[in-house]
C-alpha cells in the first residue's frame, strides 16, 4: 500500500480503559520480553534547527517531497495538552489544508538478540477533520508502525515489515482514542533494529494529524526445555542375597531373605544391612524356641 490511508472500524474506548486493556493484554503474552521502551519522555529537539520540526530525541523525520512538509511537534501534559497516551509527552505530525506523507525513524540502533522473533508497536491516535462539512472533502488520514534492520534508511525499502494501516475519516469522535499498532514478526540477522512510524493524509482537510507514543520492541524468549529425566541407575550386574533359614528336624520353619542389587535398587549392601536382617530373623527364632521348649 503506497501513499494510501484506509478507514477501519473504530472501537471507542476512553484513554484509561485503552491503557488498562493493553497492559492486561501484554501481561498475558507469555514469552514476549520488552527489549526497548521509549515513552518519548527524554526530551525533544528541532530537526536541522527548524522550529516547525520538533521531534523526540534520537528520532528523525523524512517526508514525501511531492507533498508539503508537515509540522512536527510535542504534546505535553504540563502545557495543558490532552493528546498523551501515557506519561507526560507524546509526538505528532500534522498539517492543515494539505496532503502529506511522512516517516519518522529512530536514529540510534536498538539492540536485540540476532535470530530471535522480534516485533515493534506504538500507541497511535489520529485526527482527521473534513472541510466545511463537504462529504466529498472528508478527512482521510492513516498510520502504521514498521521495524527493519538498523542499516535500513529508505522508508520504502522491502526490508521494513509494516503493521496494517489504521485510518480515520472525518470524525471528531476519534480524537483522543488511542490504538495499538503492531508489526509482524521480524527475525533480525544481526543484533540491531530500527523502528519506523508512517502517517499519510490523502485529503487536504481542515486538519490531519498523526499522534504516537510509547514505542516498544519485544523479542520472544524461547522457554527452556525441561531438564531431561535422570538416567536410570546402571546396575553393577551383581545381585547380593542374604538368606537365613531355620530348620527343625530337617523341616524348614523359618526362611527369611532379601536380595539387594547394588545401584539399581538404590541400596548398598553393607554389614549394617546384613546385620539388621539377621537380627530380625534371630528374634523370630527366639520366639519360636520359647513356644517349642518353653524357654
Explain this structure.
The chain is mostly beta strands and 295 residues long. The protein folds into 2 domains: 206 residues, Sandwich (Jelly Rolls); 55 residues, no CATH class. The chain has 2 helices and 17 strands. The strands form 4 sheets. Strands 4, 7, 8, 10, 11, 12 and 14 form a 7-stranded antiparallel sheet that branches. Strands 1, 5, 6, 9, 13 and 15 form a 6-stranded antiparallel sheet that branches. The chain has a two-stranded antiparallel ribbon with strand order 2-3. A hairpin with a 7-residue loop joins strand 2 and strand 3. It is rod-shaped, with a radius of gyration of 37 Å. The N terminus is likely disordered.
Short account of what is shown:
The chain is mainly β and 295 residues long.
* Portion in beta strands: 35-45%
Structural class: mainly beta
The helix fraction, in percent, is 10-25%
Number of strands: 17
| Count of all domains | 2
Could you say which overall geometry the principal axes of the C-alpha atoms support? rod-shaped
Mean pLDDT, to the nearest integer, reads: 78
Q: First CA to last CA: what distance? A: 106 Å
Look at the structure and give the CATH class of the largest domain: Mainly Beta
Largest sheet: 7 strands, antiparallel
Amino acid at each position: 500500500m503506497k501513499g494510501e490511508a484506509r478507514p477501519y472500524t473504530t472501537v471507542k474506548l476512553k484513554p484509561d480503559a485503552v491503557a488498562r486493556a493493553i497492559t492486561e493484554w501484554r501481561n498475558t503474552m507469555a514469552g514476549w520480553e520488552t527489549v526497548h521502551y521509549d515513552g518519548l519522555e527524554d526530551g525533544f529537539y528541532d530537526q536541522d534547527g527548524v522550529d516547525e520540526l520538533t521531534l523526540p530525541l534520537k528520532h528523525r523525520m523524512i517526508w514525501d517531497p511531492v507533498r508539503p512538509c508537515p509540522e512536527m511537534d510535542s504534546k505535553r501534559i504540563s502545557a495543558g495538552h490532552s493528546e498523551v497516551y501515557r506519561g507526560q509527552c507524546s509526538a505528532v505530525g500534522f498539517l492543515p489544508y494539505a496532503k502529506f506523507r511522512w516517516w519518522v525513524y529512530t536514529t540510534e540502533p536498538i539492540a536485540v538478540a540476532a535470530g530471535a522473533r522480534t516485533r515493534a508497536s506504538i500507541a497511535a491516535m489520529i485526527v482527521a477533520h473534513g472541510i466545511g462539512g463537504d462529504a466529498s472533502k472528508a478527512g482521510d488520514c492513516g498510520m502504521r508502525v514498521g521495524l527493519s534492520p538498523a542499516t535500513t534508511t529508505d522508508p520504502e525499502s522491502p526490508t521494513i515489515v509494516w503493521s496494517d494501516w489504521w485510518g480515520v475519516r472525518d470524525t471528531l469522535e476519534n480524537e483522543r482514542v488511542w490504538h495499538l499498532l503492531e508489526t509482524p514478526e521480524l527475525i533480525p540477522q544481526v543484533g540491531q533494529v530500527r523502528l519506523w512510524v508512517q502517517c499519510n493524509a490523502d485529503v487536504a482537510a481542515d486538519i490531519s494529524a498523526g499522534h504516537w507514543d510509547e514505542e516498544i520492541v519485544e523479542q520472544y524468549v524461547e522457554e527452556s526445555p525441561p531438564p531431561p529425566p535422570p538416567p536410570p541407575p546402571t546396575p553393577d550386574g551383581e545381585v547380593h542375597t542374604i538368606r537365613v533359614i531355620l530348620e527343625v528336624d530337617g523341616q524348614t520353619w523359618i526362611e527369611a531373605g532379601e536380595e539387594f542389587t547394588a545401584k539399581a535398587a538404590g541400596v548398598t549392601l553393607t554389614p549394617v544391612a546384613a546385620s539388621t536382617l539377621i537380627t530380625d530373623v534371630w528374634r523370630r527364632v527366639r520366639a519360636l524356641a520359647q513356644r517349642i521348649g518353653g524357654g
